[in-house]
Amino acid sequence: MKPIYLFSLFILFLSCNQRDTSKSDNKTDQPFIKTVNQSDLSKINYTEFVLSPEAQRAIENWVEYNQLQEQVGYLKKGDLSFFNDNKKAIETLLKDLNKNIPEDLKDNSILARLKVVETTIYKLESLVQLSTTTKPELIEGIKAFLISVSNLDLQLNEVIELRRYENIPKP
Predict the structure, then answer these.
(1) Burial class of residue 121, CB neighbours in 10 A (0-12, 13-18, 19+)
(2) Which ranges in the chain belong to alpha helices (H)?
(3) Phi-psi sector, 84: left (phi>0), alpha (psi -120 to 50), beta
(4) C or N terminus of the chain, fewer CB within 10 Å?
């Protein structure tokens, strides 16, 4: 019995001399930097489409679309406050954006682009909310959102142009 007792004490003393390896000095323990500014966002490379004058006239009474464009403007300045703990406002904007589409713009291609915008808004909101989001991940989420809105603008232009050509009388 005495040898087992001595062996146990020996193991106990050895384990006390070992350093605690659970404390890490890795850089991953540092808080993630999630602040983005206008210079970070100006480096994003994507094709930005603007609305044609005809498309602008078609959406001038579409209040929710104008609110979306306003949030895009704030986002380009680095203001993420709309996406930070504002779930109710985001849901309301997206619901009304889909519900109040002008009749002449209700087209499957536009509805599909609106669904993509909705998806990227929710993704960006979750990236802003997560404490583990890194700055590059956040910038990628912003880029995806800006691309989806730009593609919506392109599709609005194309639908308006297609409708204009449909109304030309054929000889």
Answers:
(1) buried
(2) 2-17, 38-42, 53-59, 63-76, 87-99, 108-129, 135-166
(3) beta
(4) C
From the list 81, 67, 75, 83, the residue with the least C-alpha distance to 38 is 75
User: What is the identity of the amino acid at 59?
Assistant: I
Cβ contacts of residue 160 below 8 Å, gap of 6+? 52, 54, 55, 58, 105
- The pLDDT tens digits of the residues spanning 97-123 come to 999 999 888 989 999 999 999 999 999
- At 135, list the tokens: 């700055």
State the residue for tokens 């880029």.
143
In whole angstroms, what is the distance from residue 55 CA to residue 159 CA? 9
Over residues 131-166, the pLDDT tens digits come to: 898 999 999 999 999 999 999 999 999 999 988 877
